[in-house]
């Protein structure tokens, strides 16, 4: 019976095609997330100078703004820390790793390496309306407010609200940047790649098809009030030089669901360990920094020097229809003996995802959840689909080939260092209401829409996100075992 469940060739984007519309709406935008220590208006200054400038400016800003209470440290964490997710390195550990790998963590924006951990995060997509004003404010006011990776690693250095910024190709062009960044999917913009990804742009949020997004501010804090205060200050400092195109407000789910996405599965467990930042946990794939960061060791492309330590950001708003997902599991549950219908439905869900809702991997716990395993980062990512006396090319008794995590990171099925991404998204939308549960149908009220604000970072969109979605997730022939 288990084998029968294994024959479901479902993955995250197939789900909607299979009729229960788990994921309906998707948008996507490609942005370059780069600490603007060398924003376009600064012209041709060399990186070394600019790095020094960053350190200097940051210190000045802290001294200058603290007395006024503007975004100063408030010593409350702005990140969640569920036990299933591996701990971030301490500031000292990260600084030691960075020193030995020659990485400068003050030069990397704070969201790129830390994963899916924000308590609340707003994505503020904007269009630049007054280029000269925007350019000058970007260099003078916004740059000192940008949160770096080392800022994020300790509660004592986290700002009240972390701020990052990324630009689309359209935005860079508007700012006068003509450099070739070496990524054609980024240069051509999200619309041009949509059909290759299997997207129907009629299902995109219209603002993403309109091709007028120049950039996005990412604001993360422990409360939406704090995010909104910084957003207000940010807009005031930009003196009317941008207009809002679209906004997505994400937040970690409440209570014991913190860290879980809306279908109920613990998320943010498996991200690659980046050399120069984190020490690998057992089973974690290790990648050189250049797989995620431009211009670093492992990045195979030529990049302009100012782009060093930037990363390409892929954003997708993926709607999740939770009541429909739950009905699908119940209606298609296997019939394992000695298990209730709900237990069989949970088994199907776990085999579709590759993990139980707790986060325990089915490769290690194929028949029943194991919450102790789930909560142990020394064990919960330590598997690669190989098992003694089983042939990895045919064995689906532990984890089906179609499971989301096996489709998106095949581990020992196929070595794929260059296809690794850092996932840094966050759920958006409210909890399922009792009316939705009773009717088994997602509400069509816009404010009740929920899903995943998916974010991935990579130094190559075509090897990272686009490859995973196109060549693995959306490809019914991956993997073929018959
Ligand atoms: C609504 C949409 C999605 C949901 C609900 C979702 C949920 C999850 C969950 C629960 C996990 C397991 C937790 C973990 O290993 O950290 C996971 C892992 C992962 N997901 Fe997704 N995901 C979604 C979309 C995507 C997309 C669009 C991609 C990329 C194209 C993707 C790529 C990955 C990768 C690479 C992993 C890690 C696999 C591993 O290393 O074992 N996911 N996802």
From TrEMBL:
<dbReference type="InterPro" id="IPR049509">
    <property type="entry name" value="DyP_N"/>
</dbReference>
<comment type="similarity">
    <text>Belongs to the DyP-type peroxidase family.</text>
</comment>
<protein>
    <recommendedName>
        <fullName>Peroxidase</fullName>
    </recommendedName>
</protein>
<dbReference type="Pfam" id="PF21105">
    <property type="entry name" value="DyP_N"/>
</dbReference>
<keyword id="KW-0349">Heme</keyword>
<keyword id="KW-0408">Iron</keyword>
<dbReference type="GO" id="GO:0005829">
    <property type="term" value="C:cytosol"/>
</dbReference>
<keyword id="KW-0575">Peroxidase</keyword>
<dbReference type="InterPro" id="IPR011008">
    <property type="entry name" value="Dimeric_a/b-barrel"/>
</dbReference>
<dbReference type="GO" id="GO:0004601">
    <property type="term" value="F:peroxidase activity"/>
</dbReference>
<keyword id="KW-0732">Signal</keyword>
<dbReference type="Pfam" id="PF20628">
    <property type="entry name" value="Dyp_perox_C"/>
</dbReference>
<keyword id="KW-0479">Metal-binding</keyword>
<dbReference type="InterPro" id="IPR048328">
    <property type="entry name" value="Dyp_perox_C"/>
</dbReference>
<feature type="domain" description="Dyp-type peroxidase C-terminal">
    <location>
        <begin position="263"/>
        <end position="472"/>
    </location>
</feature>
<dbReference type="GO" id="GO:0046872">
    <property type="term" value="F:metal ion binding"/>
</dbReference>
<keyword id="KW-0560">Oxidoreductase</keyword>
<dbReference type="GO" id="GO:0020037">
    <property type="term" value="F:heme binding"/>
</dbReference>
<dbReference type="InterPro" id="IPR006314">
    <property type="entry name" value="Dyp_peroxidase"/>
</dbReference>
<feature type="domain" description="DyP dimeric alpha+beta barrel">
    <location>
        <begin position="107"/>
        <end position="254"/>
    </location>
</feature>
């Amino acid at each position: 019976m288990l084998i029968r469940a294994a024959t479901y060739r479902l993955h995250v984007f197939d789900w909607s095609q299979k009729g229960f519309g788990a994921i309906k709406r998707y948008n996507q935008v490609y942005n370059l997330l780069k600490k603007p220590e060398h924003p376009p208006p600064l012209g041709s200054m060399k990186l070394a100078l600019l790095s020094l400038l960053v350190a200097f400016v940051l210190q000045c800003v802290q001294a200058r703004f603290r007395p006024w209470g503007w975004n100063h440290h408030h010593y409350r964490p702005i990140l969640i820390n569920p036990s299933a997710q591996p701990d971030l390195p301490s500031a000292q550990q990260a600084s030691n790793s960075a020193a030995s790998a020659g990485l400068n963590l003050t030069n990397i924006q704070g969201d790129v390496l830390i994963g899916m951990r924000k308590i609340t995060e707003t994505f503020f997509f904007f269009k630049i309306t007054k280029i000269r004003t925007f350019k000058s404010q970007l260099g003078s006011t916004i740059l000192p407010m940008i949160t770096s990776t080392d800022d994020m690693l300790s509660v004592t250095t986290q700002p009240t609200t972390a701020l990052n910024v990324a630009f689309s190709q359209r935005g860079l062009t508007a700012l006068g940047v003509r450099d070739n960044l070496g990524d054609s999917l980024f240069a051509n913009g999200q619309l041009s790649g949509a059909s290759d990804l299997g997207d129907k742009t009629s299902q995109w949020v219209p603002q993403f098809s309109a091709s007028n997004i120049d950039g996005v501010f990412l604001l993360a804090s422990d409360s939406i009030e704090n995010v909104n205060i910084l957003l207000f200050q940010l807009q005031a400092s930009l003196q009317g030089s941008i207009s809002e195109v679209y906004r997505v407000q994400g937040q970690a789910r409440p209570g014991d669901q913190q860290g879980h996405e809306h279908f109920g599965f613990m998320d943010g467990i498996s991200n690659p360990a980046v050399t120069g930042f984190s020490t690998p946990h057992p089973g974690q794939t290790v990648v050189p920094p250049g797989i995620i960061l431009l211009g670093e060791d492992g990045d195979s492309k030529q990049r302009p020097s100012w782009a060093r330590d930037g990363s390409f950001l892929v954003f997708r708003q993926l709607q999740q229809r939770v009541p429909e997902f739950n009905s699908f599991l119940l209606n298609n549950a296997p019939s394992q003996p000695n298990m209730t219908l709900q237990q069989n439905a949970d088994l199907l869900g776990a085999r579709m995802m590759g993990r139980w809702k707790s986060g325990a991997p089915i490769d290690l716990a194929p028949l029943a959840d194991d919450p102790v395993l789930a909560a142990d980062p020394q064990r919960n990512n330590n598997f690669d689909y190989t098992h003694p006396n089983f042939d990895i090319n045919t064995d689906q008794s532990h984890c089906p080939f179609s499971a989301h995590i096996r489709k998106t990171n095949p581990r020992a099925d196929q070595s794929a260092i260059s296809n690794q991404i850092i996932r840094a998204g966050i759920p958006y939308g409210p909890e399922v209401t009792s009316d939705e549960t009773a009717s088994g149908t997602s509400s069509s009220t816009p404010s009740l829409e929920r899903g995943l604000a998916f974010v991935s970072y990579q130094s190559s969109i075509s090897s990272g996100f686009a490859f995973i979605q196109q060549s693995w997730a959306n490809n019914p022939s991956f993997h073929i075992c018959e």
